[in-house]
Amino acid sequence: MTLKSFRIGAWVAVAVLTLVLSGVMIYQSVYKGTERSVVAAAAKLGAPFNLIDHNGEPISEQAFANHPTALFFGFTHCPEVCPTSLYDLAMLMDDLGEDGAPLKAFFVTVDPERDTPELMKNYVTAFSPRITGITGDPKEIAKLIKAWRVFARRVPLDDGDYTMDHTASIYLVRPDGSFQGTIAYNEDPKIALQKLRRLATGKSS
Amino acid sequence: MKHIALIASLIIATLSGTAIAGETAVGDLKIADPYARATVPGAPVAGGYMTITNTGSQPDRLVAGSAPFAGRVEIHEMTMQGDVMRMREIAGGLEIPANGSVTLKPGGYHVMFMKLKEQLKEGENRTATLVFEKAGKVDLDFAVKKIGGRKHGGHGMKHGHGMKDK
Question: Smallest CA–CA separation between B124 and chain A, in Å?
Answer without folding.
Answer: 18
